Amino acid sequence: MRWDGQGVRVDDGALPGLQRIGFVRSVRTPQFDGITFHEVLCKSALNKVAAASMLPFRYTVNGYRGCSHACRYCFARPTHEYLDLDCGNDFDTQVVVKTNVADVLWREVHRPSWMRETVALGTNTDPYQRAEGRYALMPGILRALADSGTPFSILTKGTLLRRDLPLIAEAAGHVDVSVAVSLAVGDPELHRDVEPGTPSPQARLALITAIRDAGLDCHVMVAPVLPHLTDSVEHLDALLAQIAAAGATGVTVFGLHLRGSTRGWFMAWLARSHPELVGQYRELYRRGAYLPSEYRQTLHDRVTPLVAKFGLAPDRRSFRAPPPVAAGPVQPTLF
Ligand code: SF4
Predict the structure, then answer these.
(1) Ligand 1 mean position to 215 CA, how many Å?
(2) Contacts of 256 by beta carbon, 8 Å cutoff, 6+ apart
């Protein structure tokens, strides 16, 4: 039928992994060419973080699984394998949407037993990826948290956050709110290749300014720094200068880690786009997922004077998982 390609298409042939998490239907629309949304009804919205993770928050909410931002290095990729989907193209194009997440969260954070601990948004997939333009899960999530007196943090690469700035600014009048933008690649060509589904660096710099104009602090995650691609003094100097000029209030910088199946996906991209670096990466990551302590110390020494030069406040809050302490004697480069 002529309108088949224009309307919502329903496909009941869900994978067993999706059936386990409350699958309702799969949807494709012309506005999201190449992407399939798998709508599910979740039973719980709050995810409790294991104490051993040493993260600065104990609860997260993720309305989506999979992310069309498609960063080659995304450490959340292996989570798709629990759904019988792969960590590569499926992660980028098969996006699970918890359509009832705001309602479920509202019930959870209004229970008398809820202790109003900080909830982190954007720890596993980007809450303002393109799907959010269709499903608009975040306004309901933000209202549930603010109305219940629950502090929250947001980390995103998505400029769609602008839509919710009035809501976020209003929430900040009632609860502690932290907003962070992820921006680690300043070179436009490399950006298109390594983060192909994300807004441009310039668009994210403008987002930082918009967040500040809304009266909010804006932290910037300059992570992951890619060895031999974005770790030069010149690149970091230019990027931090732009971030500071955009109005950022602080930065966190740390290098790439390659856990689980993300490693294979990233290395395949590297072999295609930068084959000359494959040997150096194999050497850097020969002991595992994390950069060796010597490299991290070098990066730390390189970044420290630049952070001071641009007056970017050192800030040890982390919106995302840093490398574990067990990775080596030198702590990750966190500002
Ligand atoms: S925006 Fe974040 S969650 Fe999405 S693909 Fe990139 S690193 Fe992964």
Answers:
(1) 26
(2) 73, 224, 225, 226, 227, 266, 291
